[in-house]
Amino acid sequence: MPHNPSHRVANRRRLTLVLTLTSLILIVEVVGGLLTGSLALLADAGHMLTDVAGLAMALLAMKFSERPATPERTYGYHRAEVLAALANALILGGISVYILLEAYARFRSPRPVASGAMLAVAAIGLTVNVVGAYALGAGSAGSLNVRGAYFEVLSDLLSSVGVILATLVMWLTGWYWADPAVSAAIGVFILPRTWALLREAIGVLLEGTPAHVDLAAVRREMESVPGVARVHDLHVWTITSGMYALSAHAVLADGAAHDRVRDELRRCVTAFKISHVTLQIEESGCGDTHGHV
User: Fold this and answer.
1) Which pLDDT does position 234 carry in this prediction?
2) Residue extents of the structural domains in the chain
């Protein structure tokens, strides 16, 4: 699981490597974009800037999430990773909108671009992005924090490919509209992925039911346990990526053994990858009439 210490160490190393490489290519692309006059390069550099900020926040959040729980923060700082993912999504969305507006201005008034230098810088950026995407890909499935950084690097990889294609078009045809066209395509490509990340992060912060959990199915499984009359006040939420919690009230059938039912219910919900379980076992007649599901 992503909160396993060995996985966290591996993810931290991946993030540190990609942060170092991305910081270097950011400098190269900013200088290259200014010297060549390429909006596409500057757009790619804008993504790199969000990558640097996002990766730095991801590392900081990962460090915070390792701090122990306190009486004031009983779950510790695990939500710091989700907050970092939320910030990444907001920043990346803002950059994308800026790129689209600037591309529109360039469409109305195309500018010459130094294609040769632009191609060299884009090739360097592509190489760095391939390395970064490969490094983060392994950890992206189990961590929303790492996934946010991975999406940013992946979008930069594809934008680097687009910059190279735009460069070749301008080099061969002199059609300078290719530069804002690719920039606009980069912005359009990123927006839906940014929205997906933003929606997932907000869902965690609002303590929504995890996407992989069918709450009705959880209730059916719990009520199928021998000795359970019904289940109410059922909640399942995400603490951080891969850490899911459940709380519920279970009403005992007549003559059911309290401890046995409780243990069976705990085993039942582990099939849904829920590790933090809080159960209140009640005698018949004590149930809350305001159930959930």
Assistant:
1) 92
2) 5-205, 215-282
